[in-house]
């Protein structure tokens, strides 16, 4: 029996046993028919009894999921929040692909090969995402300035033509760290502070980050702090076993 004939037989029985409405059309192309059967088989419950022949076809075909079209793949990826995509990435390459595909990570695209481990790049990308989301929220909260009058515009234009003396740029602590090429991710410092003092609170960590000109959302700090405490507890248990 040909594969399509088996699918048609199985589809016909699923229509009858499950009472599908609308029913699976037996005239569909093989690929479409396979997709319809895949959807229908998820509705099979313990009380639904298929014939021995239908069960054999199910076992024989092992019905792999019908391949998604490119549009379906794009839609499914877009439906997953960017933060979740980063945290669930299985490989370093997956993280780099996410950074290349999303404009939020323009600032680090040229440095992606700099980070050699998956966890390090996850921390860096989450920090960048926190900064981007923070700026977007700040822009939404800012009040739009009143329109400038014609007179004011002329004055501004005149001032812009005047050569301004160069201002001495103040270098922040964060920029100094970057120049020395010893910049650690914000998540690194959250773990570092927690390791120094496991009883430190989320608010205290936030204050310490501000002291070195860094910031991270309270939710991210809470997660990183919990991870570090969990790791410390495991180390203590291992030391007891020695």
Strand and helix map with partners:
Layout: H1 3-18, H2 30-41, H3 52-61, H4 70-79, H5 82-88, H6 92-101, H7 118-141, H8 150-161, H9 173-179, H10 186-196, H11 202-211, H12 218-241
Strand content: under 5%
Output the number of helix runs: 12
Helicity range of the residues? Answer: 55-70%
What spatial form do the alpha-carbon principal axes imply?
elongated
In terms of structural class, how would the helical and strand content be classed?
A: mainly alpha
Radius of gyration computed on alpha carbons: 29 Å
How many individual domains? 2
**What is the first-to-last residue Cα distance?**
64 Å
Find the count of extended strands (DSSP E, 2+ residues): 0
Low confidence ranges: 63-67, 148-157, 177-183
The largest sheet is:
none
> On the 0-100 scale, what is the average pLDDT?
77
- Would you list the SSEs in sequence order as H and E? HHHHHHHHHHHH
Q: What would your notes on this structure say?
A:
It is a single chain. By secondary structure, the chain is mainly alpha-helical. Helix content is 63%, strand content 0%. It has 12 helices and no strands. Helix 1 packs parallel to helix 2 (30-41). It starts with a helix and ends with a helix. Residues 63-67, 148-157 and 177-183 have low confidence and may be disordered.
